[in-house]
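pasting for the record
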Amino acid sequence: MASLEMVLITGMSGSGKSVALHALEDAGYYCVDNLPPELLTPFVALEQQHGASKVAIAMDVRSATSLPLVPQQLRQLRDSGVVVQSLFLDANTETLVRRFSETRRLHPLSRIDASDQHRALVDAIELERELLGEMREQAHVLDTSMIRSSQLQGYVKSLISAPITQLTLVFESFAFKRGVPLDADYVFDVRMLPNPHYESGLRQLTGLDEPVANYLKAHSEVGDMFRHIEQFLNHWLNALVRDHRSYVTVAIGCTGGQHRSVYLVEQLAAAFSPHWRTLKRHRELDAG
């Protein structure tokens, strides 16, 4: 009998868990939202009896008192042969406040009687971060602060298509002026490299375009940066595999997230793809 594949989705309220669950439903998973942790093991056993092959479960802070049960349950499920992937959706506080304000939803931890509702919302979000800290540490994190729902669905589908037994490298370009991605395991700052933005013929192009690539290739510092990042990752990737890591997100940042970081993400993905499963994201370009 084939192993049951289970995806557990947790994360901050307002970070897009419902969107992620819909993506998994589209991908053929039987989905359950807001399952109490006490029912996780019995639910999986029932689905195995019914011959299910793919299930996805969302849990959130409404089950806060029971969430400490989950890490041990996941270990037991893995030991029993269930293929478990755990995703944690996150977003910065400013984005979460805006989303709650736009939808006029009440955060599950908010105090209704608070005199300062904005302060109460921020406090609720920070409390939620604290309560979900252990869950975040044991999951692959997706930062949804600056991505659309359609992008999130695509990211989730690409992640769950990766073999769970194989490390997946996620290379992500970003702009420092819009903040460091919350899902980054490693962050490399390439703002000191020559900037195509100051070349009038290159300003409107991106690191995906050949003229920009040629410009950057012509500068030895860019090649040095590439080799240093490549050497660092090659040195540590096997150790990460031994530590049972399924995903590692490597974020490359420049000022605008358009030229240098995009180019290096493309080059690194090409260099590592023959030996590792790789995914690419260009946060600022994708958001455009």
